[in-house]
Amino acid sequence: MSSAKSTFERRKARVRRTLARVSNGRPRLSVHRSSQHIYAQIICDKSGKTLVSASSIEKGLRDKIKKGGNIEAAEEIGSIIAERGKEAGIEEVVFDRGGYIYHGRVKALADAAREKGLKF
C-alpha cells in the first residue's frame, strides 16, 4: 500500500513531465503550499535557477495579511509574483501546480497572477 507522500510525489512528477513537454522554453511558475504558508517561484528549467520568488513569510507581507495559509494570502502572493515577473521581463510562464489539486489557494494564486498580466 502506498503512502500519501509517495502518491503526492508520483502526482507531482506526472505534472512536471507534462509541463516539460508543453513548455517550449517558457519558465515555470511553481507553487508550494503548507498548512501555514504559500510559496511561489518562477524557475528557468534550462539553467535550473529561480528567477523570481514570493512567499507569505516575507516581512513586508506579514503586516498586510493575518494568516499565510488562506485564500487572501494566496491572492496577494499571486499578484506579487506577477509584478516581480513583469519587472524581470517575464510575460509568459507554464503553471506548475505540483501535486496539488487546482482548487482553493492554488487556484486563487493562479487567478491573481493572471489578473496582474502574467500569461499561462
Report on the structure:
- The N and C termini lie far apart (36 Å).
- The chain has 120 residues and is α+β, with helices and mostly antiparallel strands.
- The protein has a four-stranded mixed sheet.
- The protein is built from four helices and four strands; from the N terminus they run H-E-E-E-H-H-E-H.
- It has a single domain, classed as 2-Layer Sandwich (Nucleotidyltransferase, domain 5), CATH 3.30.420.100.
Would you kindly provide a brief summary of this structure?
With 120 residues, this protein is of the alpha+beta class. Helices cover 42% and strands 19% of the residues. It has one domain (4-115): Nucleotidyltransferase, domain 5 (2-Layer Sandwich).
List the SSEs and their pairings.
Blueprint: H1 4-22, E1 28-33, E2 38-44, E3 49-55, H2 59-62, H3 71-87, E4 94-96, H4 105-115
Helix pairs in contact: 3-4
Provide tags for this entry.
120 residues, alpha+beta, 4-stranded mixed beta sheet
* Overall geometry: globular
Query: What are the segments in which pLDDT stays under 50 over at least 5 consecutive residues?
Result: none
Radius of gyration: 14 Å
Distance between the amino and carboxyl termini: 36 Å
Instruction: Work out the number of β strands.
Output: 4
Main beta-sheet annotation: 4 strands, mixed
Our count of domains comes out at: 1
Q: Can you identify the CATH class?
A: Alpha Beta
Number of helices: 4
Secondary-structure-based class equals: alpha+beta
CATH architecture assignment: 2-Layer Sandwich
Instruction: Give the amount of beta strand, in percent.
Output: 15-25%
What is the fold-level CATH name, i.e. the topology? Nucleotidyltransferase, domain 5
Order of helices and strands: HEEEHHEH
Overall pLDDT, averaged? 95
Strand order, biggest sheet? 3-2-1-4
Helix fraction bin: 40-55%
